[in-house]
């Protein structure tokens, strides 16, 4: 019995020892697995420093950028032989942390992602909802919502942003929750990304720590506030667009580090300009307006006059300039009542001057039109669309005839001279304009009035058509020499380099009214030389020269000179008596 007992004790000891050894092996393996996870998982706060460290030691990427046609080096665990476009089930995320406008550069970022990543949906998490400026220029966010059916805006939790920038931890949570892509608000994707050669694709700006790109192809085995970098990640280099002026090719991603407007890409002849035009306009070609000499702008003039009342002298000079300088066939004055007074009596029997009764539109697209100046805005566009021709405000005059070259375009106008409406880069003044009937620009201009604001002076007639121009650059010719606008008795030519700077005007900058422009437009006030024929004949200077030139062309200079002399004689006789 004692022998059997000793045998059992020895067996139990052996079993305990074996169990201990086996347990140690299991424990060691578990510790190794934990250590491996620790080695590959870092807190979101460590993301930036980890990326920077990895970038310094990594031999996967060479400066300056990753090209999709490159193969992953042989020491990598995977290689790219035939890159595939990301599947359409992907979600693209943005995180919006600032109280600011959603600008054109942000619009381009989303459009580039939609085109090159083909996402199923795009989600913008915002801490402050992007707002529209009070001039209603930055409507790019609402346009995206109209164009892309699965663009979503979601209010983000407070932890989504850190000091006005997207939190790395929150960015990771978004992209790791399901196969997703995070893009910085100014990041442009220039080509489809390879699908799955590494678990993580990332780009971070070293000087700011901003994440520009984070792509997670498969959900990572880390806690929600952790991110995998290490050897499972590959870094993209997203250079600033300001450093790409002479680039002939673009990297996979770039960052728009400055404000951008459509006008900046119209004639930009480099790789970025071509790419941006392709994204926005659907063609990388520089927009070219093609003249057509088969059918010129109709040689008829249009003016608008609501409310009746006496025709003033500047209005009279405008009609004369239509007839004897621009040499139109007929001048149509559209309005509810014809003008009256002495100057109208000199014109009303002229068969080339016709009053066309028009009582004004009280509504457009179901919206009230109350103000007279907006009735003029509506009628002007309708006249150009229905009939085409040449339009002139009643405070403008022609100083040169319109040649066949300028009359060969579908629509022609010029910018207003000053930056009244920031952040609009410019607005269009249609006080003088020409166009062909049924031209597409006039149709789109009229259609833009579906968003009509009767309480805003410049929205319908100046700012809104500029937005049409931005989106359809090849439909209207902006010719700065069509008119020179004079404000506060100072004239500003929009072909001058700094034309929006009020310091530059005809008093200190070269301007030859006989050769440089087709027309002059006095918006406010009316120059004293144009307050009557007597004032004109006694005045000197550029304005007086223009008025006298028109009277000479019309053959009425002698008439008014005799009339002035007669009035002087009458006054002299009266004083003697």
Question: Topology of this protein?
Answer:
Elements: H1 2-40, E1 41-43, H2 47-57, E2 91-96, H3 104-117, E3 121-126, H4 140-147, E4 151-155, E5 161-162, E6 165-166, H5 168-177, E7 180-183, E8 187-189, E9 200-204, E10 211-216, E11 226-228, E12 233-235, E13 253-255, H6 263-266, H7 271-281, E14 300-304, H8 313-324, E15 330-335, H9 342-345, E16 353-357, E17 363-364, E18 367-368, H10 372-386, E19 389-392, E20 396-398, E21 411-415, E22 428-435, H11 440-448, H12 459-471, E23 477-478, E24 484-487, E25 490-492, E26 519-524, H13 533-538, H14 542-554, H15 557-576
Parallel strand pairs: 2-3, 2-7, 3-4, 9-12, 14-15, 14-19, 15-16, 21-23, 24-26
Antiparallel strand pairs: 1-11, 5-6, 7-10, 8-13, 9-10, 17-18, 19-22, 20-26, 21-22, 24-25
Helix pairs in contact: 8-14, 10-11, 11-12
Write up this protein.
The chain is 33% helix and 18% strand. With 577 residues, the protein is an alpha/beta fold. It has 2 domains: 47-68 and 82-281, no CATH class; 300-565, Spore Coat Polysaccharide Biosynthesis Protein SpsA, Chain A (Alpha-Beta Complex), CATH 3.90.550. The strands form 7 sheets. It has a 7-stranded mixed beta sheet, with helices on both faces. β9 (200-204) and β10 form a beta hairpin. α8 packs across α14 (542-554), α10 packs antiparallel against α11 and α11 (440-448) packs across α12. It is elongated and about 100 Å long. Mean pLDDT is 84; it is low at 24-88 and 223-231.
